[in-house]
Amino acid sequence: MTSENDMALSHAEYWDEYYSKSDGAAPTHEWFRSFGDLEQFFRTNFFDADGLTPSDKPLILNLDSGDSVIPVELASRGYQRQLCVDFSRWHL
Ligand SMILES: C[S@@+](CC[C@H](N)C(=O)[O-])C[C@H]1O[C@@H](n2cnc3c(N)ncnc32)[C@H](O)[C@@H]1O
After folding, report:
1. Domain map of the chain by residue range?
2. 39-77 as b/e, with b when 16 or more CB fall inside 10 Å?
């Protein structure tokens, strides 16, 4: 990737165009790791951690959430207080 392409990543229009190609049913990409890849890490450091269990009702901030399914997976495990932030209007 060129530095010009790198710069494009910092503009919402780039991501609007990127996500416009999604079929809306499946995530376009899990950029870092899938939920399955992270589940053991979450279990050790999050799901079973003092003050962070679903019954503790922690507030979770998902920055640059894109169309990741991780917020949905967390919600299905009882984490209902989540805020997803992304500047691509595709997610509105
Ligand atoms: C590489 S994707 C990652 C998406 C998601 N976290 C995942 O793992 O599938 C980067 C996301 O960050 C968003 N983004 C990039 N810069 C941002 C900014 N300054 N403010 C808000 N969102 C931003 C983009 O719209 C895009 O959805």
Report:
1. 3-22+33-91
2. eeebeeebbeeeeeeeeeeeebeeeebbbbebbebbeee
Ligand 1, residue 10: give the atom nearest the CA.
16
Residues whose CB falls within 8 Å of the CB of residue 47, separated by 6 or more in sequence, listed in order: 53, 54, 77
Does the Cβ of 63 fall within 6 Å of ligand 1?
no
Residues 6+ apart with CB under 8 A from 75: 82
Ligand 1 atom nearest to CA at 12: 25
Res 23: pLDDT: 78
- Chunk the chain into consecutive blocks of 10 residues (it has 92) and report each block's average pLDDT, rounded to whole numbers: 87 93 75 90 94 97 92 96 94 66
